[in-house]
Amino acid sequence: MKTLFKALVLTATLALVTIPAQAAIKVYTAVLNGASEAPPVVSAGTGFTIVTVDDVLNTMRVQVTFTGLTGTTTVAHIHAPTAVAFTGTVGVASYPGTFPGFPAGVTSGTYDSGAIDMSLTSSFTPAFLTLGGGTAPGAFVLLQSSFAGGRAYLNVHSTFAPGGEIRGFLVAAPEPTPFVLMGLGGVAGLALRRRRRA
Does the pLDDT of residue 9 top 50, yes or no? Predict the structure, then answer.
């Protein structure tokens, strides 16, 4: 029983030690649809995106799934920062033109950018780079604060709606870490109770 208790304490300690390393990773998601465009677009198209930011490695990964577009895809990118959270329109922040390798000429598909190097000025539009103080690190900080403040959206443009057929504002995904720690605490508590009975 002492071995089990020591193992649980070690596991909980390791979990606490690794939390700062995980804090570098932030995940944002958005549901994409025509009603979220400004002005709204009547489209049966829908989609979902996951944007993963690593502020230690200075990378961003964009994953998009979409289906049912009325037109065929032309470009996709992230716009930021809007003046007011979860509303309005603004210029493109990242990526200039379109995400590298985003599928063009289709009405449905999936996309995974892999790790985009956000330490490069070419990862941002010139206007957004200027907003970020003229440097890639400054622009990346501004982009992350736009994500955190609900002032960034991803949209997919198409031949049917050149200004964007589906879009969604990015929101932070819930972090599982507190639940893991609660679970470890519960298991450690049960082990301690059994230890006292023995």
Answer: no
